[in-house]
Design goal:
Layout lengths: L5 E7 L16 H11 L3 E5 H6 L2 H4 L3 E5 L11 E4 L2 H8 L7 E5 L1 H9 L5 E6 L5
Parallel strand pairs: 1-5, 1-6, 2-3, 2-5, 3-4
Length: 130
């Protein structure tokens, strides 16, 4: 069913850590601004824990697709709660002019990688042990 390019985008520390207890374990303005400018006005796909940790500034300027085992959470405005890849393909159909970014977390990244859905990956390496 894949006919759209999906781009993974994440940052990690030198050990490959992308998060810690639901939070990003660093605070770098330049990295945040790069992420924001890259995904702004496009589709971002994530798990519910990642959704809970993303700043509102990003969420309000994107179409957000959130995988959650606990649906039915009510979808609203630009945020869609889904349970499956089938749901994902249905939600993105009308947004043909938008890029699609998979932003994590680990479970969603694993799902998309195992299903060979990632066409490109943008990885920022934070050169500091945290």
């Amino acid at each position: 069913m894949k006919n759209r390019k999906i781009i993974g985008i994440m940052a990690c520390d030198p050990q490959g850590v992308i998060g810690n207890k639901g939070q990003i374990p660093w605070s770098y303005t330049k990295e945040f601004e790069y992420f924001y400018q890259t995904v702004k006005n496009n589709i971002i796909v994530m798990g519910r824990k990642t959704f809970d940790s993303i700043p509102t500034k990003i969420l309000k300027n994107c179409i957000c697709i959130v995988f959650s085992r606990n649906t039915p959470l009510q979808s609203y405005n630009n945020i869609f709660f889904i349970k499956s890849l089938d749901d994902f393909w249905q939600v993105i159909k009308p947004f043909t002019d938008k890029k699609i970014f998979m932003v994590g977390g680990t479970e969603i990244a694993t799902l998309f990688l195992e299903q060979n859905l990632i066409d490109e990956f943008l990885l920022t390496k934070i050169n500091k042990n945290l």
